[in-house]
Write a structure and sequence with these properties.
There is one protein chain. The termini are far apart. The relative contact order is 0.15. The chain is built from 4 helices and no strands. The longest helix is centred in the N-terminal third of the chain and has 34 residues. The protein is elongated, with a radius of gyration of 17 Å. By secondary structure, it is mainly α.
Amino acid sequence: MDETVILTSVALEKRMYTLLVEGLDLTRQLAEAVDRGDPVTMRLILSMRAEPFEKLHDVRRALEERKNALPPEDSARLAGLLNGEAAQRAEERPLAEQVAVNRRLLTQLFELDKAVSLKLGKDQSHYKK
């Protein structure tokens, strides 16, 4: 796989990291608003949370398009790295590491989102279904 593909993918993964951090911060603020019982702040933060998540979707789509434009062997390798496989070469290491960091952050985000959703929605939460 060409080093340019790896560098571009690392840049996109770093963009995802920034958006995940923003989403996690807003979710923490939402959790605090829920704890305070502040519906105005909850609605405001919920609307603010939409933007980073929409941008995350766009970045993920850009990664998929880049992967799909590669020859089959390179596409499969990039897919593996993006799915958490370990680096096989030194130049793949930054991408593998960034993917791992993003996965850990995404797990934190999901756990906090689940807690907030269950607290707000109780039996109506999509996590209960």
